[in-house]
Amino acid sequence: MTERSLVRMIVGLGNPGAEYADTRHNAGFWFADLLAARHGGSFRNERKYGAEIATARIDGADILLLKPQSYMNRSGTPVQAASAYLKIPAEQILVAHDELDLAPGDARLKLGGGHGGHNGLRSLISHLGAGFWRLRLGIGHPGNRAEVIDYVLKRPSREDAELIEGAVVAAADVIPLMLGRGEQPAMHKLHSRGTSPRQKPKDDEPGLAE
């Protein structure tokens, strides 16, 4: 897409509650919170969606920010409720989520795809189909599939936290460009920050995020 982006809703994935706030799995929440802080949004609980929502004014457009409060593996239900009520199709939704297969500090935009073992994406695909935009925020992989659940539900090291936060900031920087000039310029700017080798679990199994 080369024209102005039609994204109308940005979803950050994570788990609700203070005990999860600083964990790797909440990188999507970090991103949504930063957008709200930058663009005049204030999150409030919306019971009819089962989510916290805010409206951000970005590049002259009102964008709905949404953080599901249903826990990661049921993320699709609140997002579907909001998209159905507001008549926002999947292709106008951008979902920010933690990504095991990217190194900390990496961030990538893409349209569509599978869930890659991520239960938040799995739930979203089951409710919306696969045609939504994804912002993949790298958190790295522990190297062993059996360790993934504990890994994503723990705080990153200070070094990794700084890298992840840097990727969140860089991704937030390109959102006005994405909304104003389209996805391709935003993808070029974000992806040209540098690349890291795709990380594979040592046992060649896909990552599994609860």
Briefly characterize the structure.
The protein has 210 residues and is α/β, with parallel strands linked by helices.
Core attributes:
alpha/beta; Rossmann fold; 6 helices; globular
Q: Would you write up a description of this structure?
A:
- It is built from six helices and seven strands, in the order E-H-E-E-E-H-E-E-H-E-H-H-H.
- The chain is an alpha/beta fold.
- The termini are far apart.
- 46% of the residues are buried.
- The model is unreliable at 195-210 (pLDDT under 50).
Topology summary:
Blueprint: E1 9-12, H1 27-38, E2 44-46, E3 51-58, E4 61-68, H2 76-86, E5 93-99, E6 107-111, H3 119-128, E7 133-138, H4 148-152, H5 158-181, H6 183-191
Helix pairs in contact: 1-5, 2-3, 5-6
Going across the major beta sheet, what is the strand order? 2-3-4-1-5-7-6
The succession of helices and strands, N to C, reads EHEEEHEEHEHHH
Count the E strands.
7
Report, as a whole number of angstroms, the end-to-end distance: 32 Å
What's the total helix number? Answer: 6
Q: For the residues shown, what is the average pLDDT?
A: 91
Shape: globular
CATH superfamily name?
Peptidyl-tRNA hydrolase
Instruction: Work out the strand percent.
Output: 15-25%
Helix/strand/pairing category: alpha/beta
CATH architectural label: 3-Layer(aba) Sandwich
Name the helicity range: 25-40%
User: Main beta sheet, described?
Assistant: 7 strands, mixed
Which ranges are low-confidence, i.e. pLDDT below 50, for 5 or more consecutive residues?
Answer: 195-210
Rg (C-alpha, Å): 16 Å
What's the domain count?
1
- Please name the CATH topology: Rossmann fold
CATH class: Alpha Beta
